[in-house]
Each structure stands twice: as structure tokens, then as C-alpha cells.
Amino acid sequence: MLDIRGVNKRYGMREVLTDVSFTVADGRMTGFVGANGAGKTTTMRIILGVLSPDSGTVLIDGVPVTASDRRRFGYMPEERGLYPKMKVAEQLVYLARLHGLSPASARRNTADLLERLGLGERARDTVESLSLGNQQRAQIAAALVHDPEFLVLDEPFSGLDPLAVEVVMSVLAGFAAQGAPVLFSSHQLDIVERLCDDLVIIADGEIRANGSRDALREQHGSPRFEIRTAGDTGWIRTVPGITVIDFDGDFAVFEAETDTASQDVLHRAVALGAVHTFSQQRPTLATIFKEVTS
To answer: I need a labelling partner for 30 at 20 to 30 A (CA). Which of 53, 76, 252, 261 fits?
Structure first.
């Protein structure tokens, strides 16, 4: 388990991080989201030891992280950092060897990762000859090639087409399934919502929301329901405690002030005729993000 506790960081008079605290649990995917300049990259660099906090600490299983511990991390910076004129496989083997893998293990991990990431046929190509999307896959492979126990990835899905996103999601989920804590940032909230188990939302250097995806959905946003009936649903506007958000003949979306109000709608609808669907809508990550950062 990776813990970030009470981290503060200031550049001159500008406070970049204020009492940043959250946990990345073993075997769970934690999405780290925020606008540009919110403090995501600074936080990740502090976790990796690239930057030092003014105060606060980073812990592994309750113990302050050391330089030796950080060799167990897989880190992908937002800026691509591979040698452009070096062949892809050659570069990954080199990086794996720097982390202490044997030549055989380095070659085996490289071949396996390139296949899983759809780069097997590009192993002998130089990095600069790859498309931007394939360069991103190679950068991800570089973060994973040494079998890290912790993953910290800054915008891993940037520049990837939908098919590549699915491939990378599968690979990262595989690491989490093996017990690795995985922290990743992304501006693509739909991907975060699909992939993550937990969410950390940061704005202006402060954590605004933190918890499991389902718990945050329960905490934020008014209870919203949708209903489709055999007849017109215009009558829903007359039910006390109900605010209609969307309406189209036999279909309506509404917010309910209480559970009783939502059940009143259902009971009246059943009394009037057939009810084809009735369900509660959970707020999207985009909705929660807007609510906690505005």
C-alpha cells in the first residue's frame, strides 16, 4: 500500500500542494484527475523522489519510502523520455538491465510486453520511426519492463486510439490483478471512470474528493432517476419533491428530494399503466469532477 500523507510544496510564494493525502491500495487502480496545473504531476514526482516535499511524507505499508524502495516503482512521465534513435527492444532490455534484471529476464520481459502492447513487429524499429501512439506504447513498456511492484503513470492514455486504449487498459489491469498499487493520471474522464477502482480529484493543489468510485457516486449529485412508461409522463411534474430534468413523451429523467418522492412517481406510473423501465442514474465522473472543483 502506498500512502501520501500531509504533503506540502511551495515554489517561492506560490503554494503548489496543500496537505495532500491519499492512499493507493494494493491491487487497485486509482485514477488521479485534475485540471492542468492542479498538482498531479508535482505529486507524482514527489512520490518518485524526483522532487522533495516541503513537508509530509510518502509511505509504503506505513514505512517512509527509501531510494531502494523506489527501484521497485514503474514510472511513466508525461513527457516521453526514450532515446529516439535507439531500437525499441534494445532500449527496453537496457532499461530492464539497469533495474537489475538478468540478460535473459530482460529479453523475456521485453518480448512479452511488446507482444501484449501490440508492438511485437516494431521491436527492431527505432523509437523516432514510430507513430506518436506507438511511441506512447513503448513509453508504457519502459515503465513496466522490470516487473515493478508499484505503478505511477502520468497520462498513459495520451495520444492513443481507442483500440490502443483497450490494449493498455488490459495490461495495466493485469498488473493490478497481481497485487500492484496502480496510480495513473488522465484528462480522459471516460477512461478513468471505466478503469479505476478508486478516485482522487485534485484542484488548486488540494484534494477535493477521494474514495472508491462507487462511494463517490453515492456521495455526490442529487438522486436522479429515469422512467419510460406506456403513456405520457408529463404528469410527473406535478409530484411534490420532483424536478424534471428531461422529458420526451413516454420518457422522463427527474431528480427526487427524498426516496418517498421517487417511489411516489413509480407507484403513480404503475397505477396509470405499464412501466417499461425505472432506474436510478448515478452521476458520472465528469459530473462529480465539476461539482467538487467548481
So the answer is: 53
